[in-house]
# Entry
Amino acid sequence: MNLETLTISEARRALDAKEYSALELTNAYLSEIAEKNPEIHAYLEVWEKTAREEAKKADDMIARGESQPLTGIPIAVKDNILIEGRIASSASKMLENYRASYDATVIKKLKEQGTVFLGRTNMDEFAMGSSTENSAYGPSKNPIDLKRVPGGSSGGSAAAVAGGMALAALGSDTGGSIRQPASLTGLVGLKPTYGAVSRFGLIAMGSSLDQIGPLTKTIEDAQIIFEAIRGNDKNDSTSLPDSSRSDLGNTKGRTLKIGIPRAFLAKGVDPDVLVNFEKVLAHLAQEGYEIKDIDLPSLPSALAVYYIVMPAESSTNLARFDGIRYGLSVPALAIQEVYAKTRGQGFGPEVRRRILVGTFVLSSGYADAYYRKALAVREIIRADFARAFESVDAVVMPTCPAPAFTFGEKSNPLAMYAEDIFSVPANLAGVPAISVPMGTVVRDGVNLPVGSQIVASHGNEETLFKIGHDVEGE
Ligand code: GLN
# Structure
């Protein structure tokens, strides 16, 4: 088996045909990890012993004829998703020794299928960043070019899958953290509709934006994981009812229409990336799609809105890490000092920056000028998308402005934030979006992958998968 190209669906067939066992498959991944992880640093921790135990249980399920789509499939889990008894640190010193006391709903669902968990993957601290350089435990490297970042914040998950160290991985996406690393490492990355996948047991960043989703090698694999983890959950009050799922019923037998926000793309996309993007559009037109330019006039405001709403929500969510209730606690004589020392030492610079911005935009003197204004513009963005989806089935644009950058290249926080320009609109509108590889561009003699992003209306992941298959087939 070639671990770098193996897919879930191929492994499923081979496992059920008893060509190899889940234990053999897991062992193959564990030795690949032992060989490559010291250099790539995709994993913060590898769970050899329990992974083997889970694989043996999966082999028993397969032997009993109880195999499900993810039985015996070895995956990696981002370090902000809780697994009972395991450390979940969100790549922060604050939670270095925090052990989860329960399973996230997505984990519970995967355990029921007999999935194998290989380990927890590196990320930007509390999911804040686009490169993993904000991890308190050092960055991960892009397996395609070790001088470059794997993207972020789910960069460890992307590096694990792209480096052949996991068959697939779970990530979380608040403003692009699944799609952007997928784009930079040549993978498929899905951010589901807000509320489609339970957030119970995901360490919160921006609660109105966060979604868990898969990083995989193919659309088919992303679909398999999405089916396994989706569904209503009484433990998440923002979880959607199961009746909200769509089945492509309204699109059967008619030409699908794709909208391109041309005016928005004119700004800031790398010319080489645009060439690949045009090829994707030409291919889709050939496949019978109707491609038309559309106007989404509020899109240029999305980044500014995101960098107000997200820090506001993050600063609120991070208030619980005070040295008293969870995680790190730095002793001091007065309570104020405990707070200050714990938060000063436990949080890295980017997290502190966002707490400052978030507290500022929520403060009584500025909430009207910033936070409430951002919420109002967010509604306009939502409405713009809703209007667009009256005339098109999907909006397509590049996932990121450029291919993977080198370490330190975006040390200015604003340059790093600009990386999210095309990914944050979907989170603000709550609609599903997927990144699908669209070839490579050459930098310093290396072929670097880039992704195209498909965005659909609420609950229409099926549309993403259908168009994604056609992009993939290019
Ligand atoms: N790069 C974005 C940020 O830093 C997105 C993060 C995310 O999706 N978790 O906020």
Summary: The mean pLDDT is 96.
